[in-house]
Amino acid sequence: MRFFLFVLLGIFFLASCAKKEIKVLTFAVGGAPNEIDVWEKFVDEFEHNSGIKVNILRQPTDTDQRRQGLVIPLKARKSDPDIFLMDVAWIAQFAASGWLKPLDDYVKEDGIDARIFFSNVVNLADKYKGNLIALPVYVDGGLLYYRKDLLKKYGYTKSPSTWQELVDYCLRVQGDVRKYNPDFYGFVWQGAQYEGLVCNFLEFTGSNNGGIIFEDGKILLNLSENVEAARFMCDLIHKYKISPANTFTEMREEEVRIFFQQGNALFERNWPYAWALHQSDDSGVKDKVGIAPLPHFRSGKSIATLGGWHIGISRYSDAKKESWEFVKFVISYETQKNLTLKLGWNPARKEIYQDKEVIKKIPHFVDLRTIFENTYPRPNLPYYTQISEVLQRSLNAILAGKLSAGVALKKAEEEIQNVTQRYREE
Amino acid sequence: MKEERKKIILILLISIFMLSFCLLPVIYMVIISLSKNPDFLSAEKTLRFTLKNYFDVLSVRSLHFTDYLKNSIAVSTISAALSVFIAALAAYSITRLNLPGKVILLFFVLVVSMFPQISLVGWLFKLMAELGWINTYPALILPYIGWILPLSLWILVSYFSQLPKELDKQALIDGCSRWQILFKVLFPVALPGLFSTFLLAFIFAFNEFMFALMLTADHKARTIPVGIALFQGLHGEIPWGNIMSAATIATLPVIILTIVFQKRIVQGLTRGAVKG
Amino acid sequence: MLPKGTEKSKELIEAYSFISPLLLFILLFIFVPVVGTIVTSWFKATTFLSEKFIFFENYRLLFKDVNFWQSAQFTFLFILVSVPIELFLGILFALVLNCTIPLRGLLRVCVLIPWAIPAAISARIWELIYNYNYGLLNFLFMKLGIIPKPINWLGTSLGAFFSLIIADVWKTTSFVAIILLAGLQVIPEELYAQAQVDRADFLQRFYRVTLPLLKPAIIVVLLFRTIDALRVFDLIYVITSGGPGGTTTSLSLYAYKYFVGGDFGYGSALSVILFLIAFFMSIVYVKLAGFSKEIA
Q1: pLDDT digits (tens, 9 = 90+) for A369-386
Q2: How many other β-carbons are positioned within 10 Å of the β-carbon of residue A256?
Q3: Among A130, B105, C51, C72, which has the minimal tally of Cβ within 10 Å of its Cβ?
Q4: Do A183 and B43 make contact, defined as CB atoms within 8 angstroms?
Q5: How many CB pairs under 8 A join A and C?
Q6: Range C29-42 average pLDDT
Q7: Into which CATH architecture does domain C41-295 fall?
Q8: Which of A16-30, A126-140, A334-348 has the lowest mean pLDDT?
Q9: Residue A17 included in any domain
Q10: Cβ distance of C227 and B116 shorter than 8 Å
Q11: Cβ–Cβ under 8 Å, residues C116 and B254
């Protein structure tokens, strides 16, 4: 296939650019313009201290577009970008493709103790076949936001600990509040056909002792625990009617956050980022919000799906040592703390959750720490994307009332079996 | 006379439908760009007017919107102009000269343009990376020309084939060379076609997303569609006001172009010109 | 006078020289990647597995893939419904824009605006229009008393389908109208005058004079609209992202997911199939219309 390229080059007869004399690192990062601003300041600081130049490659935040922006250069074995942030769900694919430079030697050489990070995050997400291939920068986990004022008004002293309690709370409060606010709903969460739906699903199933189970090289999905959880998700919309009708069409993180922030919901499942926005001045729920771990089914325990961003070095980088210097800078205490203070990012270093300055500014960080200690990642498989596609489609069909939970999960399990078959290593 | 009146009423009705159909979403866009909150239609909220979005988009440096606008205009103008010119040469050859296999050729050009962009962009990336052109104008302009050519060619072929053949036959007999015929006889007559093709080609390049996403790295070459996609936050926070005001500003070049060309499109083909 | 043979070969050389820049660009920037895609589709080209030549294995898997068939079906229906509506409205708009009416220039500009807004953004506008809680559509319909409470437009397969169709028609009718308008302007006034003398009425005039002469432009429009509708991506990616339950997944969206997931082989095979469909559809158009005769 490379043949065509050579033909092309021959036709062009163009001298390609002179080789770079000084190595300039390229760091691929996505985010809103204000987030990029902060990164640019970090980079300036790093350049000043280390003498290594870094260019920022701005990426869109849409996960597919962002991933595409990395997959294509890496597949073409380009030396740029040298360093990039990866969604936790991509790491296995990147690692299995051999795109990530193992970091074990660097870590050992510099005496970095991996125990400074959340151990579940590093062990479950950043290791591939025994090698350390990435380090966490930003940790995310699902949590329950609730309306403190409304719970108090209706005489509830604590947030619901089981899903059944959540339903009971919602039915009572919703019925009453609707008298003056007809748009009010009990519970909003992410049900649109996208990755977030899978994250929500894993929290429902995980809190029912279910989930995606691996057994003798097979992936099991059609378990009674999972069917029960999926049916419950569907019931939230169609039977109890405590989640709005557009849950399965439009409800992504932002839509959920805005709905809750308008004061139209009692509970919300979202990532920690929503907190700061709920507390902003034009928010309808300012100072009325509390956070808690997500509820669980009677026999299970609360679980949060792990999200977030990890940093890795490209195997094709022509400046790996310099890149490592940058990685070290990003995961340093100071940078992580600054990310927290300036952008509200949830750092991967545990100590920051005890930092006095941080806690003074963001008091709920104390609660977040326990939630992050109980996060579980999505299946750590190179072909997770394909599995997620199947899951998104099937789960969304359940929520739309197109298929019953049992039928849809059985079909999904068969499809996932085919996917596994196809991408199994020979 | 009765039929005349019926016709006028019909035209009026269609015009009203046409205008509301085309403009309603655009007006909605402009209103959002002027409001503080995009959810102003929900029961609890009201529209709060602000011009801040426009100021932000035009003045906040980290948004780089003016850079994107500049890049977009430059890239689209050059690629549209070149592709119309190249396509006009080819269309002339196909419609007027005795080119063997012209139908197959037309078809070939059409056929290769049928692949989804995502399957091609990896290859273009490799090519541009080998040349070291990533994040430069040529990295966008060259593929855009290739990408727009099929459309330009087909429009111009269908257009040229409608022009009376006597025009250039006469000129040929008068001893003009092919180039002279093309520039002095055919192009002036075909101006409306050339302009509307240019307009469509310009818009095609102006709106392209996938190539621009992969072949550019920052505000030195990024174009508006990609630039606007970068406004989003990490969890999909969408600054609706900024995006919509950026989109409103971004449509201005096309509107200006249309207004400028609009007269040409009408004037281009007076009967006098046809008779040469 | 030069001998006939030299005259001919001179014309041939000229004909080739006029067309060579076009061929150069098409070959370099479209054809080479296209060949690359075709070749990749014969490989097990998954980034995380070793590359292997498997010839038509990807295609065999594809024909067994129910989701492929579902997205193919959706894509077909999408073309079948959207393109005729766009053509009908486009002809209507072009005819009106071609009349001598006041403010014609302004009208033309307005009609072009939807096409001028980048698809990535117009998709966002429609996402807001269809929004359940604060969208324009529910707001208008409730104010007008057509519906008592908000409707979840994207909630059913049918609703999502037509929501996408309307958004697509809105965006691309401008494109159709502007091409047809250019085509209308080559039709000499005399022909209409002649028809007037023959006492042909409005519709007869349209069928007898306008339509036959507009045919080349209509073919172009049909071809390019069909190809574009076949590749529909941004709109769906933003508005439904394939939902509900995967029922609005277009072929190119389906292929996109494989490319992003690292399976370039399967993604390329999907692209080739998409191409083949487009190829056969355009043959049908061109045959139906006898286009080759028109330009000869």
Answers
A1: 988 988 989 998 999 999
A2: 28
A3: A130
A4: yes
A5: 123
A6: 94
A7: Orthogonal Bundle (1.10)
A8: A16-30
A9: no
A10: no
A11: yes
CA A216 to CA C103: how far, in whole Å? 73
The answer to whether residue A62 neighbours chain B at the CB level (below 8 Å) is yes
The domain ranges of chain C are 1-33, 41-295
The answer to whether residue C201 scores a pLDDT higher than 80 is: no
Candidates C132, C256, C258; nearest CB to A250: C132
What fold, for B59-275?
MetI-like fold (1.10.3720)
Q: Are residues A117 and A266 in the same domain?
A: no
Could you give the ipTM of this predicted complex?
Answer: 0.89
> B108 to chain C nearest CA, in Å?
10
pLDDT tens-digit series, residues B95-136: 888 888 888 888 889 888 888 999 999 999 999 999 999 999
Nearest 10 degrees: Cα torsion C144, C150, C152, C158? -40
Contact yes or no for A60 and B226 at CB 8 A: yes
Give me the number of domains chain A comprises: 2
Q: Could you tell me if A283 and A353 lie in one domain?
A: no
Q: Nearest by CB to A249, from C32, C43, C243: name it.
A: C243
Best CA proximity match to A151, nearest among A160, A143, A142: A160
Average pLDDT over residues C27-47: 93
At A68-106, the pLDDT tens digits run: 999 999 999 999 899 999 999 999 999 999 999 999 999
Tell me phi and psi for residue A68, to 5 degrees.
-55, -40
On chain C, the residues whose CB falls within 8 A of the CB of B89 are 18-19, 21-22
Q: Where are the domains of chain B?
A: 59-275
CB contact at 8 A, A200 and A190: yes
- What pLDDT is attached to residue B169? 81
Within a domain: A5: no
pLDDT in the model for residue C197: 67
Mean pLDDT of chain B: 86
> What local confidence, expressed as pLDDT, does residue A6 receive?
52
Rounded to a whole number, what is the distance in Å from the CA of A347 to chain B's nearest CA? 15
Smallest Cβ distance to C113: which of B98, B127, B255? Answer: B255
Identify the bridge partners of residue A220 per DSSP, sorted by sequence position.
A213
Distance CA B152, CA B64 (A): 32
- Closest Cα of chain A to C48: distance in Å? 4
This prediction's pTM: 0.91
What residues are paired with A349 via a beta bridge?
A117
Over its C-alpha atoms, chain C yields an Rg (Å, rounded) of: 24
- Work out the burial of residue A393: count CB atoms within 10 Å of its CB; fewer than 13 is exposed, 13-18 middle, 19 or more buried: buried
Burial class (CB in 10 A: 0-12, 13-18, 19+), C1: exposed
For residue C156, the chain A residue with the least C-alpha distance is A400
Residues A275 and A156 in one domain: yes
Residues of A in contact with C263 (CB under 8 A): 386, 423
Buried b (16+ CB within 10 A) or exposed e, C83-104: bebbbebbbbbbbbbbeeeeeb
A415 domain-assigned: yes
Q: Does A339 lie in the same domain as A233?
A: no
User: pLDDT tens digits, residue range A142-200?
Assistant: 999 999 999 999 999 999 999 999 999 999 999 999 999 988 999 999 999 999 999 99
Q: A49-58, A247-256, B174-183: lowest mean pLDDT where?
A: B174-183
Chain B hits for C120, CB-CB cut-off 8 Å, are 207, 209, 225, 228-229
**Which CATH number goes with the domain that contains A106?**
3.40.190.10
Residue A20 has pLDDT above 80, yes or no: no
- CB A241: neighbour CB atoms within 10 A? 15
Band (C278; pLDDT cuts 50, 70, 90): confident
Residue contact C15–B247, C-beta within 8 A: no
Nearest CA in chain C to A65: C260
- For residue C84, is pLDDT > 90? yes
Task: Show the tokens assigned to A319.
Answer: 């400046």
